[in-house]
Specification:
The protein has 229 residues and is an all-alpha fold. Helices cover 75% and strands 0% of the residues. The chain is globular, with a radius of gyration of 17 Å.
């Protein structure tokens, strides 16, 4: 297998892992414990902790983007070759979709689980916020996320620090946004569950595709201004 194929496979595997673990915890917390303080903390740890591990595990292979909102600014900045961008995005979306399919099949083995009622951890609008509010949360959090990623992956940073910074930020972003149905920060993460949940999750999916991409570009621009890189 050549290096490019390994890179795409790593992105697919990484996105599968992030979406599977994160949305599995969200789904189980939702219908077994009804969320609550511990539930939000568990979901936040699932996404942030998994990403931190993945940065160390597949980072040397693909950079561990596992997120189109990361790959697009990385390509525009020159840190990722532009010709690799389509393959990255396709690999990430495939990984997310397969993760949601596998999770759905496993959850259906639980007698108390019903897809229509309990879902697959898709992003949504459970607090009936305005669309502009949802867009705003997602743009701001993703901008801060990408600023963190660009800053933490500079060549002069302490080895291993980037995993703590990147995973740690995703953790705190979920502490803020998970309660709102928000904090996707990742179009692929939102795409997978929404395709199988259908209904409201699919109707609002565009928010969690458009806003993270806008936020990612803003975060990259903020990094350029502050670091002059």
């Amino acid at each position: 297998m050549n290096s490019q194929a390994r890179t795409y496979l790593a992105e697919c595997f990484g996105t599968f892992t992030l979406v599977f673990i994160g949305t599995a915890v969200a789904s189980l917390q939702g219908f077994l414990s009804g969320y609550g303080d511990t539930g939000w903390l568990g979901i936040s740890l699932a996404f942030g902790g998994t990403l931190g591990v993945l940065v160390l595990v597949i980072g040397p292979i693909s950079g561990c983007h596992v997120n189109p909102a990361v790959s697009i600014p990385m390509a525009l900045s020159g840190r990722l070759k532009m010709n690799l961008l389509p393959g990255y995005i396709i690999s990430q979306c495939v990984g997310a979709i397969v993760a949601s399919l596998v999770l759905m099949m496993l959850l259906k083995g639980l007698p108390v689980y019903e897809l229509a009622q309990h879902g697959l951890g898709a992003n949504g609008n459970p607090r009936d916020a305005s669309i502009m509010s949802l867009l705003g949360w997602e743009v701001v959090l993703t901008a801060l996320f990408l600023f963190t990623i660009f800053a933490a992956t500079r060549g002069d940073t302490t080895p291993g620090f980037h995993a703590v910074a990147i995973g740690g930020f995703l953790f705190v972003a979920h502490l803020v946004g998970a309660q709102l149905g928000d904090s996707s920060l990742n179009p692929a993460r939102s795409l997978g569950p929404a395709l199988f949940e259908q209904g409201a999750a699919l109707k609002i999916l565009w928010v969690f595709i458009v806003a993270p991409i806008i936020g990612g570009l803003l975060g990259w621009q903020a990094y350029k201004v502050i670091y002059k890189d």
